[in-house]
Amino acid sequence: MTLVDTSVVLDSPEILLDQDTWLVRETLDELDRLKTHSGTKGYLARHAIRYIYDIKFNRFVNTPSNVKGESVDKVFIAIAGNKANSFNISNIKLKDFNLANYLRLEGIEVEVIETKKDIPEAYFFENLPNEQVQEILNSDFTTIKHTRPNQYGIINPEQGSILAFNKEGKVRKIRERVLHISNSACVNARNKEQIFLMDSLLNTDIPLIMVSGPAGTGKTLMTVACGLHSVLRGDYKKLLILTPPVHVGNKDKLGFFPGNKDDKLRNYFGGARDALEYLLGDRWDKDYADFIDFESTTLTRGRSYRNAFIMLDEGQNTTPEEMLTLVTRVGEGSKLVVAGDPEQSDISHNLCNTGLGTVINAMYDSKEGVYLEMYKPLRSNLVAEATSRFRRVNV
Question: Which residues contact 177 (CB under 8 A, 6 or more apart)?
Fold first, then answer.
């Protein structure tokens, strides 16, 4: 029999379909602890738990009594060292090289599986000596040793946090801003992630912004607002909003939409249109039509977008091929913002199989791009609570 570690289940749950594959019960405990986490690990844990349930998996090795409730690693070592166990374990699959070393000491054959690429951490956290803290407070700049070309983060996160942007080791302090879009509407950041996002959206030196996060975190509203602001002040000539024409659940239950191309596309841009109406009023499509345009991602091949602020909404519903096509359409003087919710993809349960996951993994450490992650839904108390509760029960 083959025993597999929790990390292998997270990465490739389909391995459990092999009738020779077994788990320890502590893996379920570990998945349960991980399922409420934000980001990739939480998403993968929830998917793995549901997968185990759906395939009715029930092959579990008994845990030695002296390590019950311990970590999966300790359970593996105890099982390997128990020569009298009734299970004929021929192989163990995991991703931890050092655990593999321990198990090989017990004569167990170990296979270390190469990890699939996870979505990288969005932000850095750096503790600096007092003289550097004073330097960034007094002059807005300091230097740190950091490898990623563009990254937002927090200086001294546990004591008097300073929000900062690191560009190849040169760090600047970020100041909060309020955008006045029209006589009746203004937008301001409501948490540190929105402060990071607004700063990046208004930075003309970064041509690619990748932002992920659940519904209600402000991805669409902040991007549309900053795009309008940038166009109105002359940084770009046009605000172009793109979306993939994918229905919820990837099922076309509505049939064909009537009208010409613009009439048909109108149905897929509800979020962006709501944001525009909030910012500009209900006559926005007449008063501002000259520099606001909408397009389907299926119609981008062959195009070249110059001097445009481009927003791709619902990026989790694009394929890697569609994403590459779009990124290679971005011409001189343009900025592309790719936004999406990893947990609401209608085309794949594996984020790395979507255009959103692919562009983040490919470009997060590029000099041309920056990756941000939004955490807290702010649309309403209902959205915040529903997001949290659905993660716990809809695993």
Answer: 188, 189, 198, 199, 202
Q: Tell me, what's the pLDDT at 257?
A: 55
- Specify the amino acid at residue 304: S
Q: Quick one: tokens of 227?
A: 């795009």
Residue 210: closest CA among 346, 365, 325: 365
Please count the helices (runs of H) and the strands (runs of E) in the chain. Answer: 14, 18
| Secondary structure class of 95 (helix, strand, coil) | coil
- In this prediction, the residues of the chain whose per-residue pLDDT falls under 70 are 38-40, 83-88, 90, 114-118, 184, 246-269, 349-350, 383-384, 387-388, 390-395
Nearest Cα neighbor of 229 from 289, 278, 191, 186 is 186
Using CB atoms within 10 Å of the CB of residue 31, give its burial: 0 to 12 exposed, 13 to 18 middle, 19+ buried. Answer: buried
Burial-class residue 7 by CB neighbours within 10 Å (0-12, 13-18, 19+). buried
Give which of 360, 298, 378 is closest to 39, Cα–Cα. 360
Handedness of CA 212, 113, 47, 44 (dihedral sign): negative
Q: How far is CA 315 from CA 166, 309, 327, in A?
A: 26, 16, 12
Q: How many CB atoms lie within 10 A of CB 217?
A: 28
For the chain, the C-alpha Rg in angstroms (whole number) is 24
Classify strands 186-188 and 178-180 as parallel, antiparallel or unpaired.
antiparallel
DSSP string, 37-69: -SHHHHHHHHHHHHHHHHTT---EEPPPGGGTT
Residue-level pLDDT at 395: 47
pLDDT at 281: 85
